[in-house]
Amino acid sequence: MADRASGRGRATKAGVDRLLRGVGVSSGIAIGPAHVVDAGALLAPEYAIPEDGLEAEVQRFATAADKARRQVRKLKTKSSALPDSAAEEIGILLDAHFAMLSGSRLMRGVEKRIRQDKLNAEAAVQAEITSIAQSFADMEDAYLAARVADVREVGQRLLRNLMQHKYQAFSFLPEGCIVLAEDLSPADTALMDPRRIGGFATMLGGPEGHTAIMARSLGLPAVLGTLGLLQGVQNGDTVVVDGIAGQVCVNPSPDVLDGYRRRRAELLAERAQLKTLRKLPAITRDGTAVTLNANLELPRELDGALDVGASGVGLLRTEFLFMNREDLPDEDEQTEILTRIVASMDGKPVTARTLDIGGEKIATALRGYFSEPTNPALGLRAIRLSLKEPKLLETQLAAMLRAGAHGNLRILLPMISSVAEVRRVREIMATVVRRLRRRGVKIAHPLPKLGIMIEIPGAALSADGLAPFCDFFAIGTNDLIQYTLAIDRGDEQVADLYDPLHPAVLRLVQFTTEAALRARIPVSICGEMAGDPRYTALLLGLGIRELSMAPNNLPVVKRRLRGLDLVEATRRARTIMDQTDQGRIAALLDDFNDAAV
């Protein structure tokens, strides 16, 4: 990517045993040849902008430039932790890039070309880069000639942001390779086949972002937020990604490599041992049954969910239907794919969530439905987008109703904040049902149950009012923590502040659970807390009896709950809920878990 390119001629060759530290987001150890992602030159589209669309196009360029500045600032912050000489060298380079993105000739020239030549932003960027490069070349100055590469790199970053460029070459990589990149989006990660890709590491990203979630779901060892990752590393270098310790080792010595191989063998043996739990019931020591479901990001994970003994699919993220394509899937295509998943579960429940595009999860095919907001996490996304563009929702609901005729399907609505939203969805669903029946199309009977995600603090606090209008709750702890603590869960700079044990978060979970129990509707946890055995006792002690997680996490959670005494867990949960200090909460929980080992 751009940062790798910017290091040409500046970075030193990666040496032996070069150990880099980041944030381990998906456990496991991967060893293989490096594949360094380099976005390369993009072919910018060119088209005319009508007079009444010029201001919107200028704003689109300004948004891309603002995003580029944020990216460069992030890289500058991370580079400051490198050794002094490297930090200074990279810092000077990134300062120059930032200057080019702030009121420079490049920025002024692009805006002028949009307004005067009525060019789209991509074409204007490409034209201005070419013009600046030519003017530098004409001066026959060696220093200015060297700066042309920097101008081109800044331009490429702008183009990537404007075009929302995605990677498409993962299917052609050598088997077992390790992908290294400045950053990877969830859509990029969705292209990775675990049978071919060994693991990946990036310079940017946090443990609870959707890229991390995708890595866990695919079972790919991954480390994000890795300082200096791309400096000096070459394609083919031997790389180890340790997703447990949060480390990346480049060109390890034979002794170090042998150590990693032994640890990997031990992990694989432990996983084989956990597989023996597959047919054992998910039941506590004192006889309380717990439902363990799988979260699915992609259809290809279905076999893995069945292999580990999942009771059903607790969360099917339907965004995969819209990612990495230029067109929207129609009703028949969505029906066909959902039907295959539902039928494959052979009567086990499948909870399909309607579209949750927005924030970090952007689909190219939906680009025309919204512009990139200043704060994506708080913008037009999830149910807000579906209700603003009801045709999208109608198509999804029709496909789900049709797929529901072939098995046990439930419908889940993301990012609900009010009763009015639930009522509106039910009205749209009733309209879709009538239309399908008029067409003589076979649909689910009885109609699928309709539930909501509790992932906004306002929804948790009004759970009592929402419950009468819902058939079930699913608590999405990922966004609930993000919105409660005002922390970007995909930002490695604040990853240490993202704390599921914050008392405010726990109280919202408790409030929601108690509201569901009073209303006699099912309630589950389908966020990342569900897949971490550290939290199993606490969640069960709060009254949760259904957990949904990445398939790879299910065996270890089952092992933990089978060793639990629910009476003791409930007692400890009550003690924890009396606390106000998250450090004390963590100590009480960890002491309880340690006593069970």
Features:
22 helices, TIM Barrel, 16 strands, transport, 597 residues, 3 domains, Glucose Oxidase, domain 1, 8-stranded mixed β-sheet, 46% helix, alpha/beta, transferase, single chain, 8-stranded parallel β-sheet, PTS_EIN, globular, Phosphoenolpyruvate-protein phosphotransferase, Enzyme I, Chain A, domain 2, 13% strand, disordered N terminus
Structure description:
The strands form 2 sheets. The protein has an 8-stranded mixed β-sheet with strand order 1-8-7-3-4-5-6-2. An 8-stranded parallel β-sheet has the order 15-14-13-12-11-10-9-16. The model is unreliable at 1-14 (pLDDT under 50). The protein folds into 3 domains: 18-38 and 172-267, Phosphohistidine domain (Glucose Oxidase, domain 1); 53-163, PtsI, HPr-binding domain (Enzyme I, Chain A, domain 2); 278-595, Phosphoenolpyruvate-binding domains (TIM Barrel), CATH 3.20.20. The chain has 597 residues and is α/β, with parallel strands linked by helices. A hairpin with a 4-residue loop joins strand 7 (238-242) and strand 8 (247-250). The radius of gyration is 25 Å and the shape is globular. It has helices at residues 2-6, 54-79, 84-100, 105-117, 121-138, 142-163, 186-190, 210-218, 254-274, 302-307, 331-344, 382-388, 390-403, 419-438, 457-461, 463-466, 477-485, 503-519, 536-541, 554-562, 566-577, 582-596; strands at residues 18-21, 23-26, 29-36, 177-181, 197-202, 222-224, 238-242, 247-250, 291-296, 313-317, 350-353, 409-413, 450-454, 472-475, 523-525, 546-549.
